[in-house]
Specification:
Layout lengths: L2 E2 L10 H13 L26 H9 L9 E3 L9 E3 L12 H11 L9 E5 L2 E2 L2 E2 L2 E5 L8 H13 L4 E2 L3 E4 L5 H4 L27 E6 L6 E6 L6 E6 L9 H4 E5 L6 E6 L1
Helix pairs in contact: 1-3
């Protein structure tokens, strides 16, 4: 028989999600399709890249973006005339702006007050502060279950009278259907955080942050991970070099080992 130990950890649909939903409501979520046959936008209303504001034009030219590699549309809600339209009918990969759609669907389907539940159960009696059995963590798919929440759950567990556990920690990840974990990744970069698949017991976004420090010997680079994982192996091939720091994207190469999925390789300078 399992005994519930805590009130479920129920973080609200996060502030950014709710606020974004509010913005959609305030500015009017009205998809406007521009294309062939749309009378709201004709050739006379379309702008050229040269007519863009100077600061924006400098950024575009500074990055060498071809004119047909981007599109822009600025239009006041309630108006039929765009303030700015450059390649408005050009079909492009939506990239991160697709989050607007998933956010809208989440708010419409789940509601702004939706909460995820993460529950703890004692699979045995508690005697003099000792759980004589296993501790079961039942995940509910909370995407923002991070270290701070886990520490809070641990404190609550202690306040409930458990100081020691003579058993195992069991993670119940059965909340989602198996097909969710088999979802197709965005690309082949399996080590990237954006390719993390949903999981009922995901924690810290299923991601590891790496920090780099110069070694006192002037040649090597110290790498530290957060969180520290006992099964994570770091193959450190980084070296220091003289010169200004150009950013890790230009100087550091990151890859996963072909023979060990728990090993990461850093090279470069």
């Amino acid at each position: 028989m399992s005994t519930p130990l805590l009130q479920p950890h129920v973080p609200r649909l996060r502030a950014w999600l709710f606020c974004l939903g509010c913005l959609l409501a305030v500015f009017g979520y009205q998809p406007v399709l521009y294309g062939q046959g749309n009378e709201s936008l004709n050739a006379a209303q379309a702008n050229t890249a040269a007519s863009l504001p100077g600061p924006l034009l400098r950024v575009i030219r500074g990055h060498g973006l071809p004119e047909h590699s981007y599109s822009m549309l600025v239009q006041e809600v309630g108006s039929d005339t765009p303030l700015l339209a450059v390649n408005p009918a050009l079909a492009l990969n939506p990239a991160s702006t697709i989050k607007l759609l998933t956010t809208f669907v989440a708010l419409e389907t789940l509601g702004p007050a939706y909460t995820w539940k993460t529950e703890l159960y004692a699979l045995g009696p508690v005697v003099d502060g000792v759980l004589e059995g296993d501790l079961l963590l039942k995940g509910g798919g909370d995407p923002f279950l991070v270290e701070e929440q886990l520490r809070s759950m641990l404190k609550t567990l202690r306040r409930s009278g458990i100081e020691h556990i003579r058993g195992n920690l069991i993670l119940d990840g059965s909340y989602f259907d198996a097909s969710v974990g088999a979802a197709e990744r965005i690309d082949n970069e399996v080590g990237r955080a954006y390719n993390t698949r949903p999981h009922a017991t995901i924690a810290n976004f299923q991601a590891v942050t790496f920090y780099f420090y110069p070694h006192p010997n002037g040649r090597e680079v110290i790498i530290r991970s957060d969180p520290v994982l006992p099964n994570l192996s770091i193959d450190n091939r980084l070296r220091q070099r003289d010169g200004a720091c150009s950013g890790y994207q230009r100087g550091i190469s990151f890859s996963l080992s072909n023979t060990n999925s728990a090993e990461v390789i850093f090279s470069g300078s």
